[in-house]
Amino acid sequence: MIQGPAVDGLVNLRELEARAEAILDPVAFAYYSSGAGDEDTLRDNEAAFGRRRLRPRVLVDVDAVDTSTTILGVPVGLPVAVAPTAQHGLAVPEGEAASHRGATAAGTLFCLSTLASRPLEEVAAAAEGPRWFQLYTHADRGITEDLVARAVASGFTAIVVTADMPVIGRRDRERRGGYTWPDGMYGNFGKYADERGAHPQFLRSAMTWTDLADLAGRVGLPVIVKGVLTGEDAELAVDHGAAAVWVSNHGGRQLDRVPASIDVLAEVVAAVDGRAEVYLDGGVRRGTDVLTALALGARAVFVGRPVLYGLALGGADGVTAVLQVLREEIEIGMALLGTPTLAELGPAHLR
Ligand code: FNR
Ligand code: LAC
Q: Which one of 146, 207, 281, 302 has the minimum C-beta count within 10 Å?
């Protein structure tokens, strides 16, 4: 379903926020766009990429540039996938079902949030492409167990444990905009007696490293730890069974004044030392951002807000369009860097 020409002529991802603000409900826009505190980290996520400089190699045969790779063994057409974000129903009624279809059409993986607007079974049925499930633990352990079992049954192939939300961050613009967590928008919790129990205020990510090891040991799927910002935690994650470590500051929405994701990537890659895959999200808006992260050792990167904005502007097609712009920028960047395959990227491509 094409919902409008709003993404037509999209030149780059930085244009998305203003375009989305013009059409989204102001309260939804405040929720999607805001960061914690003074938003120093939110701004720094993008700015820190802009401080990096590349070292291109010339006179390389770049006739055939290949953007494809694998993420935990999942083949993808580009090294960019969709980060889990809550409440896609604020953008379009179809919510995450449309986003999943858009990601599949772009040739990449979709990660569904626990706090999705639509039930995971419905999202899974909407597209054939690969999908992962992001887990926030519920105060009721039985509900968490059931959620994970449902994800396994619906073809989600990894569990992403988000570790940076023991409490929800304080976001001033969201408050000023009057955002409240809506009733009837917790797609995954509709079948449980107390839907309100899914409200982030009541979600208690009471998980510890011991719980992580327990989950990794019995779920039968790879478990990924999202929200790691130090080498110490990266090591702990691997030691407790994580198949991958996901560098993230939650898009600057949790603890303000933590570093930009790209600025801690090297520390995490060094600590993991090849024992697990490393991903990154936060402020990825350009093909060159993607190539910078891969040169520093990330296997792949994820995008959050650009997907939400693409969804608001054009539904599934809008999501595909956003990812397609990134893919084109990556292709051109690879040709100009002299790296026709992603495997060739390394620290030598950065100053
Ligand atoms: C998020 N993020 C997030 N992460 C998660 O693990 N579960 C979730 O439910 C959500 N919800 C959510 C809502 C909104 C509106 C945003 C913007 C973000 C964080 C997300 O996965 C990712 O870390 C950031 O969005 C990445 O930064 P960028 O790409 O938005 O700059
Ligand atoms: C957020 C939570 C739900 O960032 O992850 O709003």
A: 146
* pLDDT class of 5 with cuts at 50, 70, 90: low
Could you tell me the distance, in angstroms and rounded to a whole number, from the CA of residue 8 to the centre of ligand 1? Answer: 25
Residue 290 CB–ligand 2 contact under 6 Å: no
Dist. CA 130 → ligand 2 center (Å) = 23
Cβ of 86 closer than 6 Å to ligand 2, yes or no, is yes
Closest ligand to residue 82's CA: 1
Residue 85 alpha carbon to ligand 1 centre in Å = 4
Comparison of pLDDT for 187 and 348, the residue scoring more: 348
> Alpha-carbon distance 151 to 148, whole Å?
5
**Between the CA of residue 313 and those of 7, 42, 264, 265, 320, what are the distances in Å?**
6, 22, 32, 32, 11
Helix residue ranges, H only, the chain = 16-23, 26-33, 40-50, 96-106, 120-126, 141-153, 172-176, 209-218, 231-239, 261-272, 287-295, 305-337
Q: What is the pLDDT of residues 49-98, one digit of tens each?
A: 999 999 999 999 999 999 999 999 999 999 999 999 999 999 999 999 99
- Ligand nearest to the backbone CA of 86: 1
Q: Tell me which of 250, 254, 256, 307 to substitute to probe ligand 2's pocket, judged by most ligand atoms within 8 Å of the beta carbon.
A: 250
Record the pTM: 0.97
Long-range contacts of 149-152 (CB under 8 A, 24+ apart): 150/120, 150/121, 150/188, 151/120, 152/219, 152/220, 152/221
Per-residue pLDDT reduced to its tens digit, 245-301: 999 999 999 999 999 999 999 999 999 999 999 999 999 999 999 999 999 999 999
Q: What share of the chain is helix, strand, coil (3-state, %, to 5)?
A: 45, 15, 40
Ligand 2 pocket residue status of 226, Cβ below 6 Å: no
Q: What is the residue with the minimal CA distance to atom 13 of ligand 1?
A: 85
CB atoms within 10 A of CB 35: 24
- Reduced to 3 states (helix: H, G, I; strand: E, B; else coil), residue 140 is coil
Q: Closest Cα to atom 3, ligand 1: which residue?
A: 85
